[in-house]
Amino acid sequence: MRGIKRSVATLAVLLLGVGVVAAQAQPQFSGAYTLDRSQSQFPQHERRSQPDPQAQPGQPAQRPDIKLVVQQQGATLKVTRIIAMGTRERSETNTYVADGTDQTRRGYRGETVTRAAFDGDRLVLTRTHTKKTDAGDRTMSRQSVWTLSPDGRTLTIDTTMQGAHGDRVMKTVYVRDLS
């Protein structure tokens, strides 16, 4: 009887230790971040954009300011991307449940399937969009891997995009706003 109690106690301690390690491994992304263009790497686009008719000759094109606001409660992340250019601002909010299940959203002429999961100290977001066209279904996918620096001040998102025109990679680096 004493051996069974000892085995049960040992098993309980091991399970508690595994639970503590798993809780520590889940990163906490909550906060407001600003895009640091100097550390980010963007893909080259094949198409050239039209020049801004309001741009002054000889001045480089104005780039928008991008902020990311993340609210995290356990495995649920509410992510708001705010893009500001001059006096104009727009935002988009997405909610992810990082439990590894597929979330399907139907839209005009297709559907988007999103999966979010923690992988150790990283968050992996996978999005696949299938669009119905006259020529058949067209699928585009993107995988983004979020990592935080050890001090929690820098959020790096490494993204691989796959589509009809091949693969592209992008690295966006955000710095936490400390104010």
Task: Describe this structure as you would to a colleague.
The model is unreliable at 18-23 (pLDDT under 50). The protein has one helix and ten strands, in the order H-E-E-E-E-E-E-E-E-E-E. The longest helix has 24 residues, at 2-25. Strand 7 and strand 8 form a beta hairpin. It has a ten-stranded antiparallel beta sheet, with no helix packed on it. The protein has one helix at residues 2-25, and strands at residues 31-35, 65-73, 76-85, 88-97, 99-107, 110-119, 122-133, 136-148, 154-163, 166-176. The protein is mainly beta and 179 residues long. Helix content is 13%, strand content 55%.
What would you say about this model in short?
The chain is mostly beta strands and 179 residues long. The chain has one helix at 2-25, and strands spanning 31-35, 65-73, 76-85, 88-97, 99-107, 110-119, 122-133, 136-148, 154-163, 166-176. A hairpin with a 2-residue loop joins strand 2 and strand 3 (76-85).
